[in-house]
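Extended Data, panel c. Modelled sequence:
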Amino acid sequence: MNNTKKYLSIAVLALSSTAIFAQKECKLTSLEQAMNPYSLIHVKAPSNSWGDDGMPYEEKNETRAVGHDQTNCDGTFALDFVNRQRVWRYATRGDYELVNLKTGEKRKLGQGLPEKSLMFAKFSPDGTKVAYVSKNNIYMEFCEGGQREQLTFDGNETIVNGTFDWVYEEEFDCRDGFRWSGDSKYIAYWHSDTEGTGWFDIIDNVSGTYPKVNHFPYPKAGTTNSAVKVGVIDIFNSGAAQGPIATLDLKPATTTWIEIPGDERENYIPRMEFIPGTNRLMIQQMNRAQNHNKVWTVDLADGDISDLKILCEDKDDAWVETNDNIHFLQGNKFFTFTSERDGYRHIYKVSADGQKWTCITPGNFDVVREVCIDEKRGWIYWMGSEFNATQRYLYRSRLDGKGKSENISLSMSRPELKRVEGQYSYTMGPNMDYAVERFNNAETAPQTRIVRMDKKGKWSVEKLLEDNPEAVEAFKSYGLNFKEFAKAKSGNWDLDAWIIKPKDFDPNKKYPVIMYVYGEPASATVQDNWDSSLFWQYLATQGYVIVSIDGRGTAAPRGREWRKCIYGEVGVAASEDQAQGIQDLCRQFPWMDPTRIGITGWSGGGAQTLNSMFRYPKVFKTGIAIAFVADERLYDTIYQERYMNTPQANPDGYFRGSPINFVDGLEGNLLIIHGTGDDNVHYQSTEMLVNKLIEKGKIFYQLSYPMRTHSISEGRGTSLHLRKQLVDFWKKNL
């Protein structure tokens, strides 16, 4: 197949779903149509896969065969994860099959253990063993012969080994809770003791004649956390040495505990990894207030596990983040570390003793995330945006910290694009000569290109793989309006906003406004990207102007002061910015009706909806709050205390930020919605708010979804029913 035919075939496959849709009658007339999974905006792009030589498969005229979930180092065995079961947010529990790639023979791991109970199975680096978790204990099994050894024995309902409790999984993104050392001699793992932590009950009234109770540990703000520590198992000393199975004298495995200073319940261990090429374990420890991160190291090979050393520390008056991109350079003489110590999020090159810090991404802008390091050529690649917080670009900087950062994305010529600004993302090839580039903006459906670096270090577009023109044409044929961007004022702050105008927009008319808000520090809503949902577009066809504003404290790359000025008072500035921001937009755009403004949000956005309705009743006529926190004391320790400290240390902040304390202000039309099975933001929050609204004599509307979780998506017809309810409420009340 020649290159022209090759790329055409890829593009045809990628565009097939949108091309079919574009042939249909182009009218957005129903919610069912807006929620169709094969709608015009659900575009498909080629996968990015790389060959052993560092060349992308698409570039080499090859196709990738469907493979296994994991393959060991010498390609003799593979792992397949089957019968997957959901654990909280993700399907991380199930069965694993070990496949002998030479013979094709399959063997189920963990035979004799409960069905569908295995988690996080992974090969040892030498490829001879597999370790996994079952029922909160860690096991090891040999690839050859299948002999199994249990490595921990105390796992039960309250003791968790090799995985995590709810709050660590949700807030630190921790799931896989053990690590192999590079030489396969050690396994280091997290151990959590949830005894003493408050347990929450979710009552299931719809699965049978009698209710069922889901009982799990959930520490709420200011309450007792799990005690978390790190244990190390010496595989050789446990008897599981390398060699023929018949000659092994397997002994019961024992754990040696790493004694990190500090109360195990008043500190967190969000990250742990082995330093590449060593048996040195690197552990990040945060204090409970999450404003001090200590990075410890211990060398397991020297036999003294108590010899802990501080690699580096990071502090902030508000909070600090975990570091997920610590890379060691120049034979471990230096490492990279991300910090906001100069007022912006930057990457630093730090000496091995932690004493010398060199900023290698200097400037008055934020690094959003690190992409990769090309140590051979002396570059670090990262995502950011120095001039527009709604966009994302690829930059590179010298590892020595010299010279200016270079915007790679905008340096490449793209004559096929009318506007090159927007959101880029990249997957770098292993040799860093090629990358898969993905691009989109509010008016451009996702595009995929292969980009290449030449011998002089200059990046250029090699081949366009996917541009989804049918999607854009279909969008336009509907008569829909792309997001437009604006600036709104709140005091001395400039706020980013997007606006979707109604279909058949007439600037001489007055239109009701629906605001979409999140407003919490964990995310930002105003993004220059191709929207993945038609719901807002459908509401626009019903005669509404749709608006979203990012206020102070949202996770936009606008510097430390922007993000952390809300510390201790989450919810206060957010609602003020929504109220002042929309009033400013109404002054700028007279076709927005200031007497018909609605606001809605989910989760943190639900809380900000309530705060806005209660605090600014003259601004907001109607609100819909979904899966919200009504009282900030009801949410978990890690998230809430990161931004607020504890309720004991900051009672006034918790009072001011909690909408339940301001229900007296409600004057407009309010609909509250919650799933009774929400393990994240508990239905308890709705019940407490309802009690307060009743006490104050406030009229409101309530909709509960039995045993739906935080997403309110489970069960046939749920998502469509919810959206129909939203549309109905807007039409009747705005």
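The first strand starts at residue 70 and ends at 71. This feature is highlighted in the accompanying rendering.
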